[in-house]
Amino acid sequence: MIALIIGILVSFIVTIVGTPLLIRLVHRLHYGQYIRQDGPQSHQVKRGTPTLGGVVINLAILLGWLASATYRYCRSGETPSPSAVLVLFAMLSMGLLGFIDDFAKVRKKQSEGLTVRGKFIGQFILATIYAVLSLMIPTKSGFASAQAGISFVEKPFISFEFAGRVIAIVLFVIWVNFLMAAWSNAVNLTDGLDGLAAGSSMIAFVGFAVIAFWESYHLKGADHGGFAYAVSDPLDLTIIAVCAAVACLGFLWYNTNPASIFMGDTGSLALGGLFAALSIATHTEVLAVILGGLFVIEAMSDVIQVGYFKMTHKRVFKMAPIHHHFELLGWQESKVVVRFWIIELIFVVIALVLFYGDWAARSGLLFG
User: Fold this and answer.
1) What is the dihedral angle through the alpha carbons of 165, 171, 174, 175, rounded to the nearest 10 degrees?
2) Are 262 and 49 in contact (CB under 8 A)?
3) Peptide bond before 50: cis, by omega within 30 degrees of 0?
């Protein structure tokens, strides 16, 4: 518990103290955000707002976890778990890709950074490295950091092992690439209003923290009753998820409307990568679709808008992603953000109820 508290305090302090320092630095370097011309005209006043706030978010999560890991090592000699390191690799590598994209935007002085092809190649390389390492690197617990399959909770309902180990690895790499691209881009699309992505991510990571903590309390090999999970080092994953939630909370202090700084792709791609990696590490890839329901809605609204327009040259929404649709209906930006936070909270509650219901059913408590 002390290790968890240390992680929370360090992440929060780093974000609260580090963000205003970054704002001053970005102002000095004139690294302001460039607003898309086809977006809502009310957003043009945000032009020049400091970006790259994701640098502090990433740093806060990393330092919070490092402080917690250092305390555990000094107290009991416990070394960092490979599963946690891999999850952080997914977050930081996607954050680095986002940083390159953000830096390209401010250098070009426009709202477009990396090309779609360049971003796709970067995501493919990084996701593939994560996928292969998560299957290959041995862990302290003896349980793999990931399973070669697709899971709702715990055991895969679709296993890739049906065609042998090599094919399983190839299929898993494809699956991880899909998850990384889907979640990082979904969070990126959600980051269109002040505080929307940060607040929604905070709520989602609290959900992941509850799931990982429950798995750590009912870990296979422990003496707790009920269904046990074969998950690698879930307590470490709990600390990372909590640090992420706290980092987003601290960032919200400066990111609420009117935002003093934007997280940029540095933050949104990193948080999306972390979300995907936590779903893989906790064996909840399908449950995560509900846990991150708001991100799914945002991404699907964009897909529907583009697809329908290509087929009919008509629009389903006034503008996509869907938060812009409600803006153009006359909702104030702050109203859209808070209501979308509530929607995400509802999704997280539903996901946690399903998660607990799955555990109770497997433990024989529902029908016993």
Assistant:
1) -100
2) yes
3) no
The answer to whether the peptide bond before residue 258 is cis (omega within 30 degrees of 0) is yes
Alpha helices in 109-192 (DSSP H): 116-136, 165-190
Exposure of 199 in the CB half-sphere (CA atoms within 13 A): 23
Give the burial class of 93: count Cβ atoms within 10 A of its Cβ; 0-12 exposed, 13-18 middle, 19 or more buried.
buried
Spell 179-216 as b/e; 16+ CB within 10 A means b.
bbbbbbbbbbbbbbbbbbbbbbbbbbbbbbbbbbbbbb
Instruction: Quick: pLDDT tens for 168-184.
Output: 999 999 999 999 999 99
Ranges 57-61, 136-140, 149-153: which has the least confidence? 136-140
Contacts of 38 (CB under 8 A, 6+ apart): none
User: Per the confidence metrics, is the pTM higher than 0.90?
Assistant: yes
Q: From the centroid of its chain, how far is CA 137?
A: 23
Rounded Cα–Cα distance for residues 45 and 262 (Å): 14
**146-167 mean pLDDT:** 89
On the 0-12 / 13-18 / 19+ scale of CB atoms within 10 A, 138 is: exposed
Give the rounded distance of the alpha carbon of 306 from its chain centre: 24
- The answer to whether residues 97 and 125 touch, using CB atoms and an 8 Å cutoff, is no
Window from 1-5, 83-87, 291-295 with minimum mean pLDDT: 1-5
The mean pLDDT value for 207-231 works out to 89
Report pLDDT for 52: 87
Q: Which two tokens stand for residue 120?
A: 């796709």
Among 9-13, 41-45, 60-64, 227-231, name the one with the lowest average pLDDT. 41-45
- What the block records as the tokens of 148 is 């070669």
- Distance between CA 27 and CA 34 in Å, rounded? 14
